[in-house]
Amino acid sequence: MPAPIIKVDAISKSFGTFKVLDGLSMQVMPGEKLALIGPSGSGKTTILRILMTLEKIDGGHIQIDGEQLYHMERNGRLLPADERHLAKMRQKIGMVFQLFNLFPHKCVMDNVTLAPMLTKGVARPAAEKRAMELLDMVGLADKAKAMPAQLSGGQKQRVAIARALALSPKIMLFDEVTSALDPELVEEVLNVMRKLAAETDMTMLLVTHEMGFAHDFADRVLFFDRGRIVEEGKPDEIFRHPKQERTQGFLKKIIAAGHRV
Amino acid sequence: MTQWSGYLGLILQGALVTIELTLMGSVLALIMAFLAGIGRVSRFFVIRALATTYIEFFRGTSIFVQLFWAYFVLPFAGLSLTPLQAGVLALGLNVGAYAAEVVRGAILSIGREQYEACTALNLGRWQGMRHVILPQALLVMLPTFGNNAIELLKATSVVSLISLADLTFQAQVVRSQTGSTLMPFVSVLVIYFGLALIISWGIRSLERRMARGLDGVRV
């Protein structure tokens, strides 16, 4: 049995007096596709942001690929990670945001090539060649010279996915990547993610309200509530036969709101 | 008539000095603005403190006094400047202090999501600043930079107090030599206004060029 690629151990996180994560532990195996669902404020987005080092943790430990994320081991002691250590760890992780966060002053091509050229020292021709492959994969090879403002929401999000992939992370985090999209644009983004799941062995963590997609996409579903994982299991178990009352209540509300499961 | 054209020549010479002061002062102001403006958002306390001290000091004291210090007091410290050098120094440092706050404000106006994208793409702090934040912030700074440059242009007239023959100085010369008040002062009024218009126009076209592709959409 291989070692988990993500090992979250009893982490806690508060914003002010509000405890978002309360001693949360979880493990993710390499290549696993995980869907994180739950009501807003349940901590599912926060755990992604913590894995991307966008939020600090108040307590606990996280291991990525066998190495501490927020700590450095020095002579057998654990010290808080410095910027250098964090930069090294971030190489393993990529993230796609709800609001795309493209660089509006750069064309699609430059959005995708900027980070590989700056952080990995890839030469421009090689970076652009790789970017074209990625843009082709997300179906936007013809938009390489377009500016983000000229793209639809779905196209922007596909560029954002290509941009994150350009750094070849082992782990991809998707934070409600279709929530800001018009309904008719959701599918084009989901299709890219299906393709990604089918063609790569990347570990993928997905925070979503698209229950139908989570059902088809995920190997395992985690239901979050009040900073804890209340229930987890195979998509069929969670969506068809939820055991916990809170999971049942949440799914009922989601279905009542018109989401397909 | 030939007499008038001779006097106009004097005034145009003054205009050249004013333009020279404005250009050189703006370059120094721009450098100081970015140094102090970025310094103000530094992670390091010492850099923040230095930047803040500079800004507060040069905003809080009069440009006249700063110019007198640069020209009359610095020689006591062993640093003798020509009137032009003193003028550029005082103007650049003074306007740079105001513009530094413009730089800081513009940097802070860029949304958190842009910084987060930088982190997620593993850009270093300076890489993100240089390639992502500053290029976007520059567009926010430009209109106010235009204001600052025009302020600087108008402030150049203080150098006449240390006998640098700028536009205002030459107008006084012409007035005392001809006894005519209207002609020199109308000329300098028109010239200052014309120069300010050129700055406005330059900044606006720069703005238009930089905003191209953004389509007014700023996410």
TrEMBL record, chain A:
SMART domains: AAA. GO terms for cellular component: plasma membrane. It holds the Pfam family ABC_tran. Residues 6-251 form the ABC transporter domain. PROSITE patterns: ABC_TRANSPORTER_1, ABC_TRANSPORTER_2. It is a peripheral membrane protein. InterPro entries: AAA+_ATPase (IPR003593), ABC_ATPase_HisP-typ (IPR030679), ABC_transporter-like_ATP-bd (IPR003439), ABC_transporter-like_CS (IPR017871), Ectoine_EhuA (IPR014343), MetN_ABC_transporter-like (IPR050086), P-loop_NTPase (IPR027417). It is found in: Cell membrane. Keywords: Amino-acid transport, ATP-binding, Cell membrane, Membrane, Nucleotide-binding, Transport. Coiled coil: none annotated. It comes from Mesorhizobium tamadayense. This is Ectoine/hydroxyectoine ABC transporter ATP-binding protein EhuA. It comes from the Bacteria. One of its GO terms (molecular function) is ABC-type amino acid transporter activity. Gene3D superfamilies: P-loop containing nucleotide triphosphate hydrolases (3.40.50.300). Belongs to the ABC transporter superfamily. The gene is ehuA.
From TrEMBL, chain B:
InterPro entries: AA_ABC_transptr_permease_3TM, ArtM/GltK/GlnP/TcyL/YhdX-like, Ectoine_EhuC, MetI-like, MetI-like_sf. GO terms for cellular component: ATP-binding cassette (ABC) transporter complex. GO terms for biological process: amino acid transport. Keywords: Amino-acid transport, Cell membrane, Membrane, Transmembrane, Transmembrane helix, Transport. The chain crosses the membrane at residues 6-36, 57-78, 182-203. Residues 15-199 form the ABC transmembrane type-1 domain. It is found in: Cell inner membrane; Cell membrane. It is a multi-pass membrane protein. One of its GO terms (molecular function) is transmembrane transporter activity. It comes from the Bacteria. Belongs to the binding-protein-dependent transport system permease family. HisMQ subfamily. NCBIfam families: ectoine_ehuC (TIGR03004), HEQRo_perm_3TM (TIGR01726). PANTHER family: L-CYSTINE TRANSPORT SYSTEM PERMEASE PROTEIN TCYL (PTHR30614:SF0), MEMBRANE COMPONENT OF AMINO ACID ABC TRANSPORTER (PTHR30614). This is Ectoine/hydroxyectoine ABC transporter permease subunit EhuC.
